[in-house]
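Fig. S4 source data, part A: sequence.
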Amino acid sequence: MSKSQVRTLVCVVCLTAMCALIAGCEGQATVEKAKPEVKATAEKAKPEAKATAEPAKLATAEKPKEAAKPAAEKPKAATEQAKPAAEKGTTLGPYGLAKNWMDEQGFISNWLIVGPFPNPGERPDCNGFHIDYLKNYGGELNCTPANGMEIKTDDGKVVKWQPYQSTDTTVNFFSVENLKLEPSQEKILCYAACWVDSDADKEVELRIGSDDGYKLWVNHKLVSEQNVYRSMEMDQETHKVKLNKGRNLILVKVATDWGEFAFMLRVVNAEGKEVPGIKVWN
């Protein structure tokens, strides 16, 4: 081979090698350029998938909470509607004894009351005090009052025993709505009754004040009668009585000719203090 042929061959080999080198560099650049685009596409897709997953998770967690609210409130409404009304003939209580503004103790404020009944005549001979208006119902001595019990008067009028709670320690008959008295109505009388519930046999004092006169029974026994005309004061009379364990019936008849019409009664010990273990029913 001549020198010229050798040179030509070397040139061809070098040229071929250079072409191969150039082609290899361009291929690598193309691959490197494509990589970021793939990576960018993957990064872009990742937040969208995350954002899509988070609302779905939140909606799934909160849905049961919203659905559970109404069911919890329904039984409450049903319970409020289930409160029973007081039935005819049932006694109400027990109630505690009251105090007045001077801290005097032992007053009964809860009673059954019936009336009014006529108290005809003129002072000092108004004779309703001596008329037994309960004669057809066991009489004043043996009558056992009950809530809603009807009493028929001689003139055909029907009145009922109904519960009353005084707002203080005095029973003012003109304030008892069920009696439907006219203001300053004259020559009338009413009955009041309650049960004093004692936790044991006890000796107590019943202290009473009235306007005007009264009769007092305890457990169907006449304790006192005061056919008087007066203004009411506290503790105008004191009566020592024995309470049996359990309920003891107290019945009071109060009459007036004109003016105020009221009474007050308290259960105390010899020192004028409230007796423990005493409750009241009406």
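Fig. S4 source data, part B ends here. The first helix runs from residue 3 to 81.
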